């Protein structure tokens, strides 16, 4: 599943399409009224966490790439039908595959809490801290994946941030010392921007210390792997150097 930084890269690549007018639209999404799209200009391209937003005068098209979604700019995949494809009067095309497409009516500022997006200029760490303190019994592995708190954080960022901070993923939010909780919020954003730079340089995987790894680089012992928490996402951790805060479940 693409995480927030990957959506920022898509927005940057697609930025030249802002202001262009849709000449033709096609795809197999049942949510899109394709016949209404020709003649519509793209007002803006935005992201919120893992959502890619194409703002039009009529409505906004929301793209969520789920686990295996992808896109192509100025080209198409062979033998793979588009969920949504857009061609433009000024030239060029955007094509989206294996993704969820929905329409959003009205003002996006009333739909999205921009301050929850870890990649956004509007990000407010104090708001994230307030939400975390209101959920003391939540496991930190679930809290980091809560998109209402850390929009854009995905499983890779979760595993790497917890390893970096030496926090066991089964720790509870309320048991974390205040300084650790503040550091968790800080690193969720900081690692997301590091992720962005590494991905642009095609060296992201070279920087993984825990995610998909077998051996702890600090302790030189085997890492544990399990599907933890309510989210049941793959989690990698070291029992020696990642401290468990809170009761053992």
TrEMBL record:
Signal peptide positions on this chain: none
Entry similarity comment: Belongs to the FPG family.
Keywords tagged on the record: DNA damage, DNA repair, DNA-binding, Endonuclease, Glycosidase, Hydrolase, Lyase, Multifunctional enzyme, Nuclease
A biological process from GO: base-excision repair
Name of the protein in question: Endonuclease
Keyword Amino-acid biosynthesis: no
Organism: Pseudoduganella lutea
GO molecular function: damaged DNA binding; DNA-(apurinic or apyrimidinic site) endonuclease activity; lyase activity; oxidized purine nucleobase lesion DNA N-glycosylase activity; zinc ion binding
Annotated catalysed reactions: Hydrolysis of DNA containing ring-opened 7-methylguanine residues, releasing 2,6-diamino-4-hydroxy-5-(N-methyl)formamidopyrimidine
A Pfam short name: Fapy_DNA_glyco
Ranges of residues in domain Formamidopyrimidine-DNA glycosylase catalytic: 2-96
């Amino acid at each position: 599943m693409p995480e927030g930084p990957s959506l920022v890269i898509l927005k940057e690549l697609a930025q030249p399409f802002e202001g262009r007018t849709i000449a033709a639209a096609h795809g197999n999404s049942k949510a899109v009224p394709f016949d209404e799209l020709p003649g519509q200009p793209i007002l803006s391209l935005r992201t919120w966490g893992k959502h890619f937003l194409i703002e039009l005068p009529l409505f906004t098209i929301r793209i969520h790439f789920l686990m295996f979604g992808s896109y192509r700019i100025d080209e198409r995949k062979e033998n793979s039908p588009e969920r949504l494809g857009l061609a433009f009067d000024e030239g060029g095309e955007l094509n989206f595959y294996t993704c969820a497409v929905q329409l959003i009516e009205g003002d996006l500022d009333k739909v999205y809490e921009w301050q929850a997006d870890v990649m956004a200029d509007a990000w407010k760490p104090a708001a994230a801290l307030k939400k975390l303190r209101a959920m003391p019994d939540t496991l930190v592995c679930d809290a980091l994946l809560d998109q209402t708190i850390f929009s854009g954080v995905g499983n890779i960022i979760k595993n790497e941030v917890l390893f970096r901070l030496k926090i066991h993923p089964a720790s509870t939010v309320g048991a974390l010392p205040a300084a650790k909780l503040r550091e968790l919020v800080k690193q969720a954003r900081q690692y997301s921007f590091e992720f962005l730079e590494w991905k642009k340089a095609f060296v992201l995987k070279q920087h993984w210390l825990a995610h998909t790894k077998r051996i702890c680089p600090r302790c030189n012992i085997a890492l544990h792997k399990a599907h933890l928490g309510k989210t049941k996402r793959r989690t990698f951790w070291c029992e020696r150097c990642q401290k468990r805060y809170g009761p053992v479940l």
